[in-house]
Amino acid sequence: MTKNFYITTPIYYPSGKPHMGHAYSSIIADIFARFKRIEGYNVLFLTGTDEHGQKIQKEAKKNNKDPKKFCDEISETFRSLTKILNLTNNDFIRTTEHRHFKSVNEIWSRLIKSGDIYLDKYSGWYSVSDEAYYDSEEIQEVDGNKIAKTSGSPVEWVEEESYFFKLSSFQTKLLEHYKKNKDFILPQSRRNEVVSFVEKGLKDLSISRTSFSWGIPVPENKKHVIYVWLDALTNYLSALNFPDTKDEKYRSFWPADVHIIGKDILRFHAIFWPAFLLAANLPLPKRVFGHGWILSDDKKMSKSLGNILDPIEIIKNYGTDQLRYYLVKEVSLGNDGSISMENLRNCINNDLANNYGNLCQRVFSFIKKNCNNKIPKINNFNENDINLIKNIKSNIPKLVNLINNQNLNEYIKMVVNFSFEANKYFNDSEPWTFKNKDPERMNTILFTIVEQIKNISILLNPIIPSSTKKVLDTINISDKDISIESIKKDDILDCSLELKTLDILFKKIENDN
Ligand code: MSP
Predict the structure, then answer these.
(1) What is the position in ligand 1's atom list of the atom closest to the CA of 292?
(2) Most-buried pick from 63, 199, 394, 403 (CB within 10 A)?
(3) pTM above 0.90, yes or no
(4) Low-confidence residues of the chain, pLDDT below 50?
């Protein structure tokens, strides 16, 4: 039986070029997608761009461009970022595509049919840059400007005719859902925030705008465009050929297993989205995971502070695997985390070059020099060897569980530790001392260490895919054997083949670089 897994990133506003925050959401989702694939799942990994709304219309105007043309250009930079980050997304959705129009129209008409939409007048605060409505308590005045307390974005007073969604009538159902599904919102701290927000009571939500035109028109009243968040959230269904609920993709992948998002858009995903789906009589996603913010030298990245980190620049200087590894090793998923170039260099040097990289290089060159460049055949392990090998194999259920709970930091810690242990084993066992006096012992040590390198490389593969692929290629492990299953097996290494040549995996970085 095929096991399916559907994971999504937020779809990004193509209002400016991609930055580190976008790269972060995408890399995390890619790591989970890759892990589920090597665990044997049929994975659908979706990303894309969120192209409607006032924010995009304004930005296009500022650039003297037609909004569609503007989106075409910037969406392309997000698409090319997927290649630069080495993402394995199977699809890239744009909300200006026809498949998405169809699906949003269907959601709208389901909400009309269920009686959850009514026409009224909205008057209140709106932030164009957050594309969000705010209550007066959520607003503060700084230097004579009204801004939203949470995001700091400017807000403006809006009064216009609007369709409303009866969000208030979903309060009980949502609370029941959170109660029954303890892991619907993760991490737990975010879940608590959402629950207490909903417990305070929900107001109906304005879901259409009339003061601009860049959006999907309300089917029965073309004066209105559908609120960009109702439009955007529906992308997760559009990619499954919704409204055709008989379609293979829809049937295989809905409900989604996890929506990976940033904490700033939790309310939209953990309150609005499930309420829309309940009203539309569709199943709810299994999980919404809200990660924290990437801070640049302890501060939120912003144009005005000039501290925006460009992932493409960093990758040019240090490499894709290096950035992927650093982001997930250093930032505790779920919390905010500061990144700096100095820490990035230290992380590359210590974890990648000195630990994993060095282990592979020295073992392979030893084999080349002393064993005709082939992994030696053996059959008599001692207790030490067995314990080392067993340690990874017996921890597989724990590692899988950590990933299934999005506990990426604990996962990496364990794998890095395996690599430290392997290095220590190689040093302490001193295979070079056995070359003449006991070649069989030397061979056993080498076989054991290559087995460890294979297993560590498979476990690191979702995080640093291209470097681990090079290592696994060197020891002749084919793509089909890059799997969790092959860690459990004892007969994957082929001792009849010569090792391929491995170039330096991670260059050490001088600190004044
Ligand atoms: N278009 C909406 C999402 C719609 S999903 C149906 C949106 N787009 S965004 O481009 O502004 O942001 C997308 C994601 O990037 C969000 O999850 C946001 O949290 C993340 N990040 C933006 N800046 C960030 C950091 N500095 N750090 C980490 N992630 C942050 O919101």
Answers:
(1) 28
(2) 403
(3) yes
(4) 513
